[in-house]
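Need Tricarboxylate transport protein TctB's 3D structure for a figure. Predict it.
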Amino acid sequence: MALNDRTLGIAALVLAAFLTWHGYDLEAPFAYEPVGPKAFPLLVALIIALCGVRLIIKGGNPAEPNPPGANARIGIMVGLVAGYAFLFQWLGFVIATAAMTILVGRLFGGTWLKSAIGGVVMSVGFFFLFDRALDVVLPTGLLGGLL
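Structure prediction for Tricarboxylate transport protein TctB:
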């Protein structure tokens, strides 16, 4: 099968259908907002479906193969995201986000120093932005007493 815009558009429609199917029955145990938790996945599904329809109508544009090593980096990224999801609660937002950011930075050619500075600054900055300024509770994990 040739990879082109239509193939991607069909895949986008399948993903949108999957999101709609799983997101439609989401219900919160208590009402904290009028639309509930299903609004976000349904909105994302709608946007993905519209983009998929656009790609199917537009068509053409065969995809070029990935450069050497790109598929391995993509696989490693998937593993890093899965590890982040599993360790997020236990390690806490700051440590898990810093670790993932540092490893992703290294994966895409950043130096250890730049990746470490960026990862630590971003994870601490986002923690205080979300946890303190926006009042979104994030797990503190191993740094519970310090944050």
